[in-house]
Amino acid sequence: MSTEAWTRISAHRHELGEGLRRTPDGIRWVDLLKGEMYAWTPGSPAFPRRTHKLGTPLGLAEEDGTGRLIAAAGTGVVVLLNDGTDVPLADTGLDPARYRVNDGALAPDGSFWFGTMVHNGSEPDGALWRWDPAGGGAVKMLAGIDIPNGPVFLPDGLGMLIADSAAGRILRSTLSDPADTVPFAQTTGGSPDGMHVDGLGRIWNAVWGAARLDVYAADASLLASLALPVAQPTSVLLTDGPDPRVIVTSAATGLSAPGPLDGCTIAAPFSRVAAGLGR
Description:
The chain has one helix at about 270-275; strands at about 5-10, 15-25, 25-30, 35-40, 50-55, 60-65, 70-75, 75-80, 85-90, 100-105, 110-120, 125-130, 140-145, 150-155, 160-165, 170-175, 180-185, 190-195, 205-210, 210-215, 220-225, 235-240, 245-250, 265-270. By secondary structure, it is mostly beta strands. The chain has a four-stranded antiparallel β-sheet. A four-stranded antiparallel β-sheet has the order 2-3-4-5, with no helix packed on it. Strands 6-7-8-9 form a four-stranded antiparallel β-sheet, with no helix packed on it.
């Protein structure tokens, strides 16, 4: 597959683009290490606008059932306000000099799940956490994952997938017992990063370091590996419509000679890059 179908939609390269999510009228993503959030409307000729700039790492943000924009930030959970500020909701109690948030998602039951990881070069120590808006506290649900990405929640409303990025694998678990994990897929040539479940239940995974997307069926069979013009893809999202756009964030961090699109958020028509998968 040619990578020529991909075009840049971000105004500049990001150090660590991440956290693609839908909005009521488009999509958003973050530059995680800079604590910045961007919003963009597909089809718009304008570059995305920056909506928030925090003083801490910002992993992702997603609207809950009440319309609040819940985000993983610093070492905990905040709500992002329309004026660009944030209000703390819960914290893990971790030392921000050593730890930061990473990826996460809202679960079908309204709880917010997110990962934490070490970012100062010391001994790895990652975990998956759950914040319940009814209970108020952040609770550690799964330890022993150095760099957690996801989770993504499966269409049955009960299962979830967690990327154990440092170990090069994706794990399957459940909301009821997240510590009871089983292997879902082992990634080759790179590390599994952000994931997306499309309308047909297929799992899309951005493979960091491998310049590709892997697409799995619900039974974990690999349906396709799609080449990308970025070395370090970090998250993936499909928009709606008869010919959806495939959107991918990427990172420039650590690259000694980044290519022209490395670190950018890029997009391509499904019909150009994934037609073999069918709709």
